[in-house]
Amino acid sequence: MTSTRFATTPLLAAVLLACAASAGASSHREAPFITTSPKVDGTDFYMFRSYETGRSDFVTLIANYQPLQDAYGGPNYFSLDPNALYEIHVDNNGDAKEDLTFQFRFTNTLAAGGAGITLPVGGRNVAIPLVQAGSVTQVRDASLNLAETFSVTLVRGDRRTGSASAVTNASTGATAFDKPVDNIGVKTIPDYAGYAARHIHTVNIPGCGIPARVFVGQRQESFAVNLGTIFDLVNAPVAVITNPANIGALPNTIGDKNVTSLAVEVHRSCLVAGNEPVVGGWTSASLRQARLLNPSPPAGHQASEKPGGAWVQVSRLGMPLVNEVVIGLKDKDKFNASVPSGDGQFAEYVTHPSLPALLEIALALPNTAPRNFPRNDLVTTFLTGITGVNRPANGVASEMLRLNTSIAPVPFAQQNRLGVVGNILAGGSDNAGYPNGRRPKDDVVDISLVAVMGGLCMANGNTNALGFGAACNPSQVPLGNTAFALHDAVDQAAVPLLPGFPYLNTPLPGSR
What we know:
This protein is of the alpha+beta class. 17% of the residues lie in helices and 24% in strands.
């Protein structure tokens, strides 16, 4: 079916609204509670075989937090929460439970032992109001008024009761690592790329004989979406968003934002267990169950509250877009507090998604949604992994990214922005992308749109080629092959990225 014919059918409206719902920023402000705690709002999670030259046997895991940062957001900018626990989890035996957890904790300390940098004013030494007192070029630069450091702990087994060991600096054995200050602007930090690169730490991971790398710091937003227009019922020209030639026609409205990344690069042999090459991964953030606010906080940094009680998970992210467009509004906070082993409680949202039915009601366009119930194509894509690509030999259906570590990485220039879907469309050989893990270049909005509207069911055909089951066949997909042509008119592949670790681009400066 040509794009011209598609543009003249009533089905167009349903497709466009499906695009709108699928194209919310990957996980920005996705649930009611998390909008009140942006410092622990996980926005995107990436897991892929490293494609940096000479690093192909490593796996990179990146968890982004604090969405929609304006580069000019001073004077305090976007330090991470010292009262929070940020985690990256890995399941290496398919049981939907973490086997390895990288725990990140943060400490933010004022200079001069907590007194802060002072300047002589009228015979007195007075504390300055900014996080910097001059140009910043070096790690722990004397001009920095705020020192941001973090620790990383590897927990084997259950995240709360397993065996915990500190990740250490490979050169010094230290357990505290420096985090670069955010990109205040070109006058304060003339060479931010060089400054940030000095905060890439080579580390030793307990139980792993090959040194790894860790970086935590601000990055340019790595996700692309025409956010405001999309949420306004796709308030964009129809001719643009229905023509595959215009994949990059609309602006990336969050391209001028920054995020904060927690990145780890680990040799793949240190992540897998036995002969199973497929690992699952997700990120979460937790806060203490209670906090006591001090109505008269003392001098110092982060001195106004005292947390206590058990850790309570408030953010969870594996596959992109799940909490935005799959989980019902009433269960979004519950999903953020849940763990993969309990995902049976959310199964109906995947096997019988409400979004297509909602479109039919809202637009009075019956019979526009895929009818292959239960939606085994979505179950396979989001909950089990695709047979022959990233499905473990023995696995429990659950929501997480799944990466087959035996599939070699593809150099950046040759990566298909549609990942596995791109192989189906073009007959390529790039199986190293989403939904087999996720790379920064993968256009997860377009890929997910194709999947939601039945495109992978079409690819499965009557032969069950992708293992979706006999209930998935082309006759139950009203869109037919047109599903493969859908896009949100914003090109993920155009986002600026780095050729190597930590892969996400240098953050935008507060002034230029």
